[in-house]
Amino acid sequence: MKLGQEAYFTTDRRSRICDVIDEKITIGKAVQWSTTDGMRAVKPFTTGTFAGVVMHTDDNDKGIIENPTTASILQSGNIAVKVAENVAKGDKAGVNNTGDFVKAATGTAIKGYFETTAKSGELAVLVLEGII
Q: Is the dihedral of CA 42, 45, 49, 54 positive or negative?
């Protein structure tokens, strides 16, 4: 399993290409819609509206997507993410103010759950059920 990589293919997979214009973003982290360019651009998640998870691409080996450029964002499907606290299979997912994935009760709840159990700092499979 690789950070920001889809865990396996599903028929309900939805992703989109978004502009990265405000600041660089990290692969495998949560992003929110940019206030600079509405729902076409994303920036690192703090307290805004969850837009998705930055996906790994084969042409980026640094783990960072610089601005200005574009990034692939997963909005529905399965993706490997690093968790900031211990999570158990079936826990509802959330995001904290640094874009890290946590339990819904600890951060901002998102439409998704953890499909695997993981300790803080480890990778877990996050199942995103859409952003709306």
A: positive
